[in-house]
Design a protein that fits this description.
This protein is of the alpha+beta class and 133 residues long. It has helices at residues 5-19, 30-41, 116-122; strands at residues 23-27, 45-52, 58-64, 78-80, 89-90, 104-109, 112-115, 126-132. The strands form two sheets. Strands 4, 5, 6, 7 and 8 form a five-stranded antiparallel beta sheet that branches. Strand 2 (45-52) and strand 3 form a beta hairpin.
């Protein structure tokens, strides 16, 4: 049993990029699906597909994005902020800016999982899940 499925998700993405894989399989959950959707919308991954398996566990196939010339991954850093042992919450006035707006912070709010910029527009705060840049 995993104690922190979000950290496992981010670690699988990180490891697949370091190994140069094109596609990575991740066990699915609703929160992971929303994080994957945000990464795709913001251009950090090429594509994704949700697969239903014979067991109750869903699966997410993620196509990673690399620079065509330099073969460098599109995601430079994935950092888990809020952990099960120490949750990090932020109100609407204190939302983090990642690399002065060049990266994104993924926030779990009452309106769903959104980026820091969308949370500022909605004027809501929440749990800061991770930073991506």
């Amino acid at each position: 049993m995993l104690t922190d499925p979000i950290a496992d998700y981010l670690t699988r993405l990180r490891n697949a990029q370091m190994a140069g894989h094109r596609i990575v399989d991740v066990p699915g959950s609703n929160l992971k699906k929303e994080i994957t959707r945000i990464l795709h919308e913001k251009g950090y991954i090429l594509n994704y597909k949700f697969e239903k398996q014979s067991t109750n566990q869903d699966n997410i196939k993620i196509a990673l994005k690399y620079n065509l010339k330099t073969k460098q991954p599109a995601i430079k850093k994935l950092i888990r902020i809020s952990k099960p042992g120490l949750r990090k919450y932020s109100n609407n006035k204190m939302l983090p800016r990642v690399i002065n707006g060049l990266g994104i912070a993924i926030i779990s709010t009452s309106k769903g999982v959104v980026t820091d910029k969308e949370a500022r527009k909605l004027n809501i705060g929440g749990e800061v899940l991770c930073y991506v840049y």
